[in-house]
Amino acid sequence: MVSETRLPLTGIRVLDLSRLVAGNMLTVQLADFGAEVIKIEEPGRGDTLRHWRDDGLPLHWKVYGRNKKSVALDIKSDVGRKAVLRLASTAAVFIESNRPGVIERLGFGPEALWRENPRLIVVRISGWGQTGPYRDRPGFGSLVEAMSGFAAKNGFADKPPALPNMALADMVAGLYGVSAVLMALRDIEVNGGMGQMIDLSLLEPLFSFLSADAAVYRKTGRIPPRSGNRASITAPRNVYSAKDGGWIAISASTQDMTERLFAAIGRPELANDPRFVTNADRLLHVDELDAIIQEFVGARTARENLALFEACGVTAGPVYDVSQFLADPHVLERGIVIDYPDPEAGSVAMHNVVPRLSRTPGAVRNPAPRLGEHTAEILGALGFDENEIRRASQAERTDA
């Protein structure tokens, strides 16, 4: 086990009642840097990530549950509610991801929590936010990715709008949540501030990632079309197939880089071709430009292309699948992926801690806990006796 003495969030207790991806993304970041993250989970069931299994193993949970503690607790019972409030009195952060109004009915609304702990930061994760006409709608990330404008601009022009094949909205919201928590903590620690509520929807963080689309539309009336792997503001930018079936990504988003690319493919005269002199010209003639680059790339293997472009200082790189990424020497040398010991799986490949801090780096210290693994330890420390603990977690299972 790695020492926590130099981890920057040591001493911060986080009470996590969230489920699914956004909350777990938020809290794994805090846990990696030393926060004590206590997952409050439904007895006998636990977090939904425990039920996403591959070859019988809950690998999603093992990656995003690392460094956390698990307390199985029936929060609808009297002793469960009492335990949550007592835990909240000892915590710095409280996180939930129910529809607006649910935790109020359970007795854990912000005002009730602040009566127990006036300095508590309450993070409320939802699809659409705590206010507005959609506040009570189900808020899965796929719906947000559709409504935000992401799907409409993602994919190819002659194909349907494309949803991401990952929990993008949840992941983005989770990262925003980390920064929000740290800002709120700083206000308390430096400015003497009090607790506050963080209204973290999935919708707004993802929309903020979609470039300047709103500004462009309001000023010009233009709606960005689906452009596949091309960029709407610079050219050339695409993926090109090599003769051995590999793919190369090229992004020449500055004038100097475009001219360097033209020289690398043996066509320096293209820099003076009226179709390609400026970025605006290249965008107008992008089909012709991509055809020229594709002809060059398609005559060589992926390795030959990459070696040439690297020698010429062209911004090009391989298109990898996960197996190729895991074998890349840069990934290996930097330890971007680690194989962490796990009592059930032997070891689990997972992303290393990000970002990298030079003086107080985070660390993967513990595997994801079994459901309810820390129930007796944590509730016992709060003064609950064995009978109360058993009643609060009577449906507890520890096999996930």
Write the layout of secondary structure elements.
Elements: E1 13-16, H1 20-32, E2 36-41, H2 59-64, E3 68-72, H3 78-90, E4 93-96, H4 102-106, H5 110-116, E5 121-126, H6 141-147, H7 150-153, H8 168-191, E6 197-201, H9 203-208, H10 213-220, E7 237-241, E8 247-251, H11 255-264, H12 279-284, H13 286-298, H14 302-311, E9 316-318, H15 322-327, H16 329-334, E10 337-342, E11 346-351, H17 375-381, H18 386-392
Parallel strand pairs: 1-2, 1-4, 2-3, 4-5, 5-6
Antiparallel strand pairs: 7-8, 8-9, 10-11
Question: What features would you highlight for this structure?
Answer:
400 residues, disordered C terminus, three-stranded antiparallel beta sheet, 40% helix, Rossmann fold, 14% strand, 18 helices, six-stranded parallel beta sheet, alpha/beta
Short précis:
This protein is α/β, with parallel strands linked by helices and 400 residues long. It has a domain at 13-209 and 360-392: 3-Layer(aba) Sandwich (Rossmann fold). It has helices spanning 20-32, 59-64, 78-90, 102-106, 110-116, 141-147, 150-153, 168-191, 203-208, 213-220, 255-264, 279-284, 286-298, 302-311, 322-327, 329-334, 375-381, 386-392; strands spanning 13-16, 36-41, 68-72, 93-96, 121-126, 197-201, 237-241, 247-251, 316-318, 337-342, 346-351.
